[in-house]
Amino acid sequence: MPRRPTRLKGTHRPWPAPLLLPAGAGAPPHPEARLLALTGDVHCTGPWTMPPRFAVKAFLTDLVLDLREVVIPPDATLDVDTVLAQVTIILPPGVLVTVLASDGAGDVSDRRPAADRGLGGRESTRLVLTAFVLFASIELVGG
Fold first, then answer.
1. What is the three-class DSSP state of 11?
2. Residue 56 lies in a domain
3. Considering the domain boundaries, does residue 80 fall inside one?
4. What ranges make up the beta strands (E) of the chain?
5. Per the domain annotation, does 137 fall within a domain?
6. Which pLDDT belongs to residue 30?
7. pTM for the model
């Protein structure tokens, strides 16, 4: 059964409870979760277990996805589509990110220090970031 996106307005919200499980609660009931951020500032933070695919759509917003306390499954995919928005993804140290992006006057950048990028260890968490960026930016930062 497809899940509807959650709409968030305001600032400093926890992850949308209907879509996600607390960290350590076992496998998510669905292989995918979705988040829709429209206008304003949205800051998602806190512990939870990410499903294998997490789809985010951001329009006219400043969105912060704080993944420092998130349990990221092996080879997870984070799909981010953004238009006229700025998305900041805060990652814990050691996460190896593969970026597959298409942009139209946009930018995807990894601003983490080299030591935090998970480049050398077999133990690294792997995350695939697929992105569509139109007049917007996505920044990966360390936390």
1. coil
2. yes
3. yes
4. 6-8, 13-14, 32-45, 48-49, 53-66, 70-71, 76-83, 86-91, 95-104, 107-110, 125-134, 137-142
5. yes
6. 64
7. 0.79
- Maximum Cα–Cα distance for the chain, whole Å? 41
How many residues belong to the chain? 143
**pLDDT tens readout for residues 57-107:** 999 999 999 999 988 888 899 999 999 999 999 998 888 899 998 877 889
Please give the mean pLDDT across all residues of the chain.
80
**Count: domains in the chain:** 1
Task: Please state, in angstroms and as integers, the Cα–Cα distance from residue 31 to each residue in 34, 95, 97, 106, 110, following that order.
Answer: 11, 21, 20, 29, 26
Q: Examine residue 101 and state whether it is found in any structural domain, yes or no.
A: yes
The answer to whether residues 56 and 37 touch, using CB atoms and an 8 Å cutoff, is yes
Does residue 134 surpass a pLDDT of 70? yes
Beta carbons within 10 angstroms of residue 29's beta carbon: 11
Q: Which domain holds residue 18?
A: 6-142
The alpha-carbon radius of gyration of the chain (Å, integer) is 14
CA–chain centroid gap for 124, Å, is 17
CB atoms within 10 A of CB 118: 19
